[in-house]
Amino acid sequence: MAIREDVIVIGGGLAGSMAALEAADGDASVRLITHKKSTLRHASGLIDVLGYLDEEEPVADPFAAISELPDDHPYSIAGEAAIRDGLARFDEAVGDTYLGSHTDSNALLPTFGGAVKPTARYPAAAAAGLASDSRDMLIVGFEELTEYNAGMLADHLDAADVPFDVEGVELNFPGEYAHDSRVTRFAKRLDINEDVDHDGQTMGARQALADAVAPHVGDAERVGFPAFLGDDHTADVRADLERELGVDVFEIPMGPPSFPGMRLADQLKDALDDAGVHISAGNPVINYEADGDEIEAVIVDSKGREVPYHAEEFILATGGLVGKGIDSDRDGTVEEPIFDCHIPHSDDRYDWFDEEAFGNQPFAHFGVRIDEGMRPLDADGEPEFANLRAAGGVVGGTDPVTEKSQSGISLTTAAVAGQRARERAAKREVSQ
């Protein structure tokens, strides 16, 4: 039996998930096709709209700064209303597990490298760590985590002139572990509150951790841990630690595997299920069928068998260079591998890089260019296809890493792509 939907979304990351949720907000049947695990598992879990322009100082209000962006920036093309729509859709999907929707202003949160990062939405588990909070802070690190050093983090925060005293302490995580134990092992132990041996006694892992930290709290009124305080029961873990320590407890986003990112991926999966989105996972989209400027189907490689998935509208949300939604080679070619959408770039690879390591890197801008309906444009500035839209990292035209805008761009382009796809699919159904 042929597979047919109103809207097909290709890519299961933040942009793909949000585009599917937007498209499904009505009577449209929506299918999300994803090949690999979501890149959210490597992300901080923070939702950044716009953290920096050209200045070293962070942007206080992203919406007040949008007018300073160039005309070809995705935000300028989509418009402020679309940014707000994307955030609203995100807020609806995650509920009270995220904070920040009460204000347009960025919050400032510490990261595991000791930086203070401006962000628009942040997990409730990180809330007590706001850098604008004047309460003294203790940062806890663990000898088993070589990539995270509490003392260095505290020193960096202190150097950033935060309005509080901050100390760092390195401890051994309670219990015994193999030398190759990963952070997921620590999170699981806290999640199930597994019994461990600590100071000659057997006790739950949460109690043991609190006992190890308590002598170092001093005058601190809040304590920050690496973001692995459980997975399915993180709120319970934090509540138990807060009760035992008598202070607020918060998580500090860290490198992969990122529990805040994985938790967000799980929440979006639940939201997609609730919205009735069909999910096809594990098989890649390798080609497409078209009639003139209309795509009729995408071709999915199902264990060596080419299967067409038909739809009225298609949304490309496969990511950028990191997510392999854009490919490049040593011959100077940069391409979008499914629909061969135009990617503006120099044929000389040496033009892709700035000599300054922290300069304006041309490769960071690689991606499809879009019109107001999020349709990818060809070299002449015309839509590649009438019924193809793009969202997220595959959209170029700016450096989202430097701007701290990637997740905001994902939400914004996904909101417009999903809305337009849903509306156009509905009109075509009526006309038929």
From TrEMBL:
<feature type="region of interest" description="Disordered">
    <location>
        <begin position="399"/>
        <end position="432"/>
    </location>
</feature>
<feature type="compositionally biased region" description="Basic and acidic residues">
    <location>
        <begin position="420"/>
        <end position="432"/>
    </location>
</feature>
<feature type="compositionally biased region" description="Polar residues">
    <location>
        <begin position="403"/>
        <end position="413"/>
    </location>
</feature>
<keyword id="KW-0560">Oxidoreductase</keyword>
<feature type="domain" description="FAD-dependent oxidoreductase 2 FAD-binding">
    <location>
        <begin position="6"/>
        <end position="408"/>
    </location>
</feature>
<dbReference type="InterPro" id="IPR003953">
    <property type="entry name" value="FAD-dep_OxRdtase_2_FAD-bd"/>
</dbReference>
<protein>
    <submittedName>
        <fullName>Anaerobic glycerol-3-phosphate dehydrogenase subunit B</fullName>
    </submittedName>
</protein>
<dbReference type="GO" id="GO:0009331">
    <property type="term" value="C:glycerol-3-phosphate dehydrogenase (FAD) complex"/>
</dbReference>
<keyword id="KW-0285">Flavoprotein</keyword>
<dbReference type="InterPro" id="IPR009158">
    <property type="entry name" value="G3P_DH_GlpB_su"/>
</dbReference>
<dbReference type="InterPro" id="IPR036188">
    <property type="entry name" value="FAD/NAD-bd_sf"/>
</dbReference>
<dbReference type="InterPro" id="IPR050315">
    <property type="entry name" value="FAD-oxidoreductase_2"/>
</dbReference>
<dbReference type="Pfam" id="PF00890">
    <property type="entry name" value="FAD_binding_2"/>
</dbReference>
<dbReference type="GO" id="GO:0004368">
    <property type="term" value="F:glycerol-3-phosphate dehydrogenase (quinone) activity"/>
</dbReference>
<keyword id="KW-0288">FMN</keyword>
